[in-house]
Amino acid sequence: MKKLFTVVASLALVSGAIVAIAPANAAVLRVPKTTWPACSDVRTTYCVDSVTVTPAGGSAIKLTYVASGTAAPVTPAPAAPATTDTSTATTDTSTAKTPVAPAPAAAPGLAVAGKALTGRWTAATWGAAGLGALGYDGIAVDAHTANEFSNFVMVDVLPSLTGTTDNLVKLAGTTANPLFATSMDPDMVISIKLKTGDFQNGVTVAIGNAVTTEAVIDAATGNSVTITGSPVTVPVASDSKQCTGETGKAIANIRQFQVIIVPQNDDQSGFGVPGTSGGMMVASNGSCGLTTPIWNNDQKQMTWSAAAPHFAADGITVNKGFYRAIIPAKDADLLWGLKNAADAATALEVSITTEAGGSAAATTNISVKNNSIIIDATGFSYSKPKLSVKIKPTYKASAAAPAASTPAVKAPAKAVIKKITCVKGSVKKTVSGAAPKCPAGYKQK
User: Fold this and answer.
1) Residue 83 has pLDDT above 60, yes or no
2) How is the beta sheet containing 348-353 ordered, strand by strand?
3) Where is the composition biased (Low complexity) (predicted)?
């Protein structure tokens, strides 16, 4: 078996095993190791450019970055109608409106202040749009490398809670344990645009729901990537031991949103099967050991795995998981020789096995959208299921659409040359052509 690149993602640590030699002239990628700030005139790359959120049934709301200790924007109260002031009349307040206070940014009592954060992304309409119903008043976007030895970019989205008097931004923690972030709204769609300098996407690993990425390569202004998705319920483990076997128990089930992007242009620890597009993505809620695809070239099989505690915090409820892989059609052609992406549902075989080796009860589905193959597996139980995809041995490629025939172009017909004899008295002339005519004064003989 040939393992090309493997990455294991967790909430706290990402590590990579490299089995490829980078070309000698490869550019050295150096991604800043500290948290990326909001983009500004001073910081134009490796920064958070913009954040928008879309509440359920609502429209997208563009958020503003507010540093910790700074007053957040508020919706101004409507002004009272102006009245005419005369020397003999007093101000008439019969039609004046009482100023309306802004809607509360977060519902009180549902979250408590945890660790300090550098700032948050929020909007004046946060409370009015119902975004504060779960107790947080904004979101913090913590983009940074997974550790100081890696160029893998981790983007952690955290709920925030701001002091009413000091405006200090802190983590919105659970009332049971402020060290853990409170659950975020599963119906809120979050979109984050990062300016990524010379970093180029290799593969994306997401802990979230319906996650998509859109990467733009621009040598003039620097690359960027936009990450869009929603929080998903994650069984949180106290340690990795809880993620093995069928007895592990989570300490909490919390809705989170996190993304890890592995570069393809890193000469130290990049990711990718040579020739692939770099647009592959996997997502799950098994955060203990979520892996990127491992390709077995001999068997033409790709495998992933995820891990989480078997039980929820009550020790009774079995944690259920999902796994989604998005494989660009170009990559499917390279890996399996799948020339027609529409054949994916009949050509590919998806299987899920548990850690013990038995089949896991799950629903799998293969679809094709936007020229990518989407593989969904849902409803399996943890601790450590493994998903594999391979080409069916009985698969036969569908007949290629016949090439459009090019109408035969007829060669222009050759003109028939005629000759006539023209006379004028004793003078004779021969005139030739397609439609010869005698000159003036001559008659055809």
Assistant:
1) no
2) 294-296, 301-305, 386-391, 348-353
3) 80-102
